[in-house]
Amino acid sequence: MIITFDVANQYWTDGVDTSVDNLSVLIARNCSATFTTVYSETGTALATAGGGPDPYLAPAESDWKKKRVVVNLVTTPANSVVVQFRNGDAYGNNTYIDNINITPQFKRDIEVVSVSPDVVCTPAITPVATIRNRGTETVTGYKISYAVGAGAPTQITVTGVTIAPGATATVTLPAGTLASGANAIKVFTQEPTTASGTGDQYLVNDTLSKTSYATLTQVAAPLVETFEGTFLPTGWAVANPDNSITWQKTSSAGRNSASSAFMRNFIYLTAFGQKDILYTPPVTYSDADSVLLSFDLSAATKASPSAAVPMDTLEVLVTRDCGNTFTSVYKKWGAQLQTVLDPVSPLPSEYVPFADYLWRTETINLTSFRPNGPLQVLFKNSSNGGNNIYIDNVNLRTRILPAGLRSNGFVISPSPFSNQFNIWWIQAPSDLRYVAVFNSAGQQVWKKEYNGSTSNVINVNMTMMAAGIYIVHLGYSDQGKDQEVRILKAQ
Hints:
Elements lengths: L1 E8 L1 E3 L4 E2 L2 E8 L5 E8 L8 E2 L12 E6 L10 E8 L6 E9 L6 E7 L2 E2 L3 E2 L2 E6 L5 E10 L5 E10 L4 E5 L3 E2 L3 E14 L2 E2 L8 E8 L4 E2 L2 E3 L11 E3 L8 E3 L9 E4 L10 E6 L3 E2 L5 E10 L13 E7 L7 E7 H4 L22 E6 L10 E8 L5 E11 L3 H6 L1 E4 L6 E6 L6 E8 L4 E6 L7 E5 L6 E9 L6 E7 L2
Parallel strand pairs: 2-6, 11-20, 21-27
Antiparallel strand pairs: 1-7, 1-9, 2-3, 4-5, 4-8, 10-13, 12-17, 13-16, 14-15, 14-18, 18-19, 18-20, 22-33, 23-26, 24-25, 25-33, 26-32, 28-31, 28-33, 29-30, 29-32, 34-35, 35-38, 36-37, 36-39, 39-40
């Protein structure tokens, strides 16, 4: 049996006198009155935060230390152990314990740790399972099965392996088929073989159930999601490797709405560094001149941002192949990520954005992924036990430029015009020197000069001019680039 627990302690001392307490762990067989000590520490050995003269009232995160006690129960009947945590008071200081975990250990015990993938973009799936030998003897073979939904299990027998106690191994399972959307998958092991025989002696950890997604629904751009409806929205998916806290919908906060998607990092305290990913559906588009992603963000930290304190991180990735390969286009944490008014003030309570000023809009230019899709966006949360992160109003949109703008690099519109028209370049022309407009008699009726600083759109107001044909002359530093365009002013 393995007993683990977290402890925080500070012994009392005023620099002259010292008082030290004791913490012991004892076990009793068959609920008897006779206890055996399996762990005992006192004074500096027990202390995780040194010594001091003041009451030890609030252990810091760094004060906590994990203790691991291995107990030999070979002669103990099953299900008959009582564990006692005993404090020996010597008028010292406070002792805290937390996260007690008592796990039996057997000769033959194999568990399913994880199974991947979490998200696929085709119906076909070839799961890869990770198993761990939790027993005390080397595993040389085992059986493993999996089932999708209510389907019949598929089983394989694995032989010729050597999995030492505590070690993990991966095994590729036979190909299967997923339905579009969420699929319940159950993976379970059987009959581990060791030197002492065959058969799992602890069945509690033999089975892992999870949800895998097939994102078969493609959405034509623009993709707009406000998270007001059913979660997950159609075509969206979540990668939740540890089957624990992950992306979910909240109706307690939203940007100009009642709901949003959020990661509840505030209570995600046992999985530092764990990654949870929210997938958009594949977004299709063609012949796009620009691609733009925007979303509203609200976030806070629980500890003061610093290089020494790991922070929750939000990363945005883009993939064309369902995450097999991807490009990171955004990554923020700490002071850069949070949206509270004071960027260095931690919020020790659970964060819920209650007002619009606690949100900001993030915009990411994805034009490098033009001209054609499909494209998927991944919102990846890396948790470090900080505070909550919210996203809302996801918008992935494209733009197709007018044909004239594409072919000439600029376009004049509208034509015919009534009072004014615009000259629109794809990019602001740094070498433009002037724009002049002449009437059909060759008389200049409008002109403006530039010195290299202009926007990509110039407005020309011709309200006082008579209807008819006009000639727009664009003059550049290199006169060989000069151009003339005829345009019609309507009645």
